[in-house]
Amino acid sequence: MTTDSPQPPATCSGKVYLVGAGPGDPGLLTLKGKTLLECADVVIYDALVSPEILAMIGAQAEKIHAGKRRGQHSLLQAETTQLLIDKAQTHAVVVRLKGGDPFVFGRGGEEMEDLIQAGVAVEIIPGITAGIAAPAYAGIPVTHRNYSSSVTFVTGHEPIDKYRPRVNWRAMAEASETLVIYMGVHNLSHILSELDAAGKDPDTPIALVRWGTRPDQEELVGTLATILSQMEAAQFEAPAVAVIGNVVNLHPLLAESRPKVIPRQ
User: Which residue of 39, 46, 251, 263 has the fewest C-beta atoms within 10 A of its own C-beta?
Assistant: First the structure.
């Protein structure tokens, strides 16, 4: 059980569903996830869940914001887990709604582990992760027969109490032909410095995709040598996914056929 283990319930008649909301476009939510939102008694949701998906929650449901954003944590992780346990004692269907996929840098594994050990029934409903969807909506395939046969998904933000040392970015420089970095904008200067020290070509293309798949999606495309100054000039901020590799060169051509996102009303 993780640190600050939650208290087990005396009785528990409900079930918790860890639902992946996807990256933002409501059309990317699974049918199973949508059905659960419509019939849930309680929905505890994160900050990155789009307003369009929150609008699918049934009117009968209690909605609780447990959002986690850099420096703006509404609830501590242990508090969120305990809240899930408490709600499962008195409600049949409790949805834990997370942006992207719960098991891909979403702490879904940690929450599921604690719920099972606390005796609470729990089920995972996967979602589409931003590391695939955001590049796709920017016209960037993460693999391509002519440009990349391998891809690595890695987080650019790690907790200070992590179980082992930081990501070895120098090793990452040659680990695969495409790097997809989640939550790496705030740490991008350090990441690029490490890749450079490992001999990564400074002309390697990089794309940053902010609010991927949403109507307000923004993209910034450059090279490892130029992207920091471009970010400063454009005042480009997190949250964003970074894609590094020659697949980014397909952006000008493939972006013309990107999926259409319906603007918010």
Answer: 263
Strands (E), 82-167: 93-98, 121-125, 151-155
> CB neighbours of 33 closer than 8 A, spacing ≥ 6?
19, 20, 21, 125, 127
Q: Give start and end residues of each alpha helix (H) in 101-158.
A: 108-117, 130-137
Question: Among candidates 136, 125, 143, which has minimal Cα distance to 209?
Answer: 136
Strands (E), the chain: 15-20, 42-45, 62-65, 93-98, 121-125, 151-155, 178-182, 205-210, 218-223, 240-244
> Active-site positions?
46, 68, 183
The pTM score is 0.87
Non-local (6+) Cβ contacts of 160 within 8 A are none
Give the tens place of pLDDT for each residue, 164-212.
557 899 999 999 999 999 999 999 999 999 999 999 999 999 999 999 9
Q: Does residue 202 have a cis bond before it (omega within 30 degrees)?
A: no
